[in-house]
Amino acid sequence: MSAPKFTTLGCRLNAYETEAMKDLAEAAGMDNAVVVNTCAVTQEAVRKARQEIRRLRRENPDARVIVTGCAAQIDPASFAAMDEVDAVIGNTEKMAPDTWKGLAGDFIGETEKVQVNDIMSVTETAGHLIDGFGSRSRAYVQVQNGCDHRCTFCIIPYGRGNSRSVPAGVVVDQIRRLEDQGYNEVVLTGVDLTSWGADLPGEPRLGDLVMRILRLTDVPRLRISSIDSIEADDNLMLAIASEPRLMPHLHLSLQHGDDLILKRMKRRHLRDDAIRFCEEARRLRPEMTFGADIIAGFPTESEAHFENSLKLVSDCDLTWLHVFPYSARPGTPAARIPQQINGNVIKERAARLRAAGESQVQAHLAAQAGRDHAVLMEAPDMGRTEQFTEVRFAAPQPVGQIVQARITGFDGQQLTA
Fold first, then answer.
1. 22-59: string of b/e by CB count within 10 Å (b at 16+)?
2. pTM to 2 decimals?
């Protein structure tokens, strides 16, 4: 008997859910299986998922191959048609104990091959209790799933469904449990974190949850994975200003820097809104650093439109960029817009954005020399500052602990101490 093998593609939420699936599969007594948790954010992500499935089948010819995740949720038939695949399960089904009990038994033919229901009918997100993952220093807690917005380029709501929130009491209980196990940092994760609470009684906001966690737990460091800045509420801004245990690092879903393109993307903010948020957050917390998602080559993007995105990097003083060359996703409104931009031009624009981001990273690293930082150790010789910057240590440190360090300089994309 061999334990199932799991492969995760895509976001941190997927990685979190893989850990929960491991527990469910173990409880069900599953063995001799390979599970692929797919991503659908771009066409390239879907291509990589198929490539990974074929590779795993070659390496595990006698195992059952089970495919789940956003790509499987959105297009289950195409994955079920692959010769390498034995079963396809949806994003809701993958978190249900009964699904894994059924998969652990014998298949009853083709009728069991696809278990994917309508994700839009799901109204709750369970707070799956896992012990954390990635390292013994940092744990991730899913507080929200799905998205109510319909950005024209994005397929993810069709893989994740509408927004659902984990009640605050459940979140606090899980963080206390992780705290008791020695985790010194907790990261709140979700698909659209700033929509947390809209479906709960009283419609609390993300800032309310953050303040409640900080009030009712003693976790040394709380981090927010990604937010939509236009939806930041007053309590979230208060927490940024007044709570040192909330880490000064925010990843922003910006996507573009030109107002016309933002409107065509059906985003809810304009360029000036993004700049104003960054200026205010940094006024409240001068050490605040920002990451951001930016798309290059959205249909109808002119050179002038792109220059506004490029300029946004410095206008918002962004440090950590995730740059995506535009990828048409069938089923999204943007996919129906004629793409008049040459693929090489899109790649070139993405490269220019990445180069601007790299310059920002180097400036950030250079500014840290001589400063003292509290560093959470992920390995004996590597940890991260409050701003999520990697620090390489000359002498080994205790993993999982927060150590005080004087920054001596930087090497590549890492600080040295």
1. bebbeebebeebbbbbbbbbbeebbebbbebbeebbee
2. 0.84
